[in-house]
């Protein structure tokens, strides 16, 4: 086994895995306070990327700069979706929410198809072709930036949850919504703000993923599947575990692509998920 190729695969997997962790952080935040698993999560990520594309087409705005516009747009859209569609059925059967978010998936996907067409698109960035070379390891700067941003984002979320009144409200709703309401926490307000924040975070993830990524309206499903894998692997509500889960998925993808031939290489992340859950049913850092 060539150690240089292995090292390159490990570094590439870690960098890509960090972006998966960033995408899954938003869903983990939403699930922690509402119990909602949003099956249209990846399509909101696609929406963020297509809005960035529209901003580039109209104003030649770099994806990294467009996040200052896409974040509030996605956050407002997320809050509106929760208030108008999810809140009325949140106390209903789990299948209702699953059907609802799957319906959103179809609406978003077909809406983007109607507006932007079915041809692959791309959004150039000033960092797209930049490389960072360290010895025998070659890294794309966009992935290095995404890795650093993921760490910073996770740290900021941790500080928000542990040091702010809003974070304490989130933790209270996560632990026991009824007890939180008795203590004066406005549970509905916390849930709508968290849903808005969780969807808004996809604007940041979309900007980090965009350089070098071809856009297509149907790509949201892939990100939804990866996000769910990452979320389950990380323990659903443990943010450190979710980031760790993203790194495991990224690593297994990179190593599977290089060292495992055929279809087995593509399903390696799923096999690793099953193996880990056999020994850790609650995820890497989840509590049984």
UniProtKB/TrEMBL annotation:
GO molecular function (one): transmembrane transporter activity
InterPro entries attached to this UniProt entry: ABC_transp_permease, BCAA_transport_permease
Main location: membrane
Homology family: Belongs to the binding-protein-dependent transport system permease family. LivHM subfamily.
Keyword match Ribonucleoprotein: no
Span of the signal peptide: none
Segments passing through the bilayer: 6-32, 44-61, 67-85, 97-118, 138-161, 192-211, 223-251, 258-279
Keywords: Amino-acid transport, Cell membrane, Membrane, Transmembrane, Transmembrane helix, Transport
Annotated protein name in UniProt: Branched-chain amino acid ABC transporter permease
Compartment(s): Cell membrane
Membrane-protein topology: Multi-pass membrane protein
Source species, domain of life: Bacteria
Any one GO CC term of the record: plasma membrane
A single GO BP: amino acid transport
Keyword Cell membrane (UniProt): yes
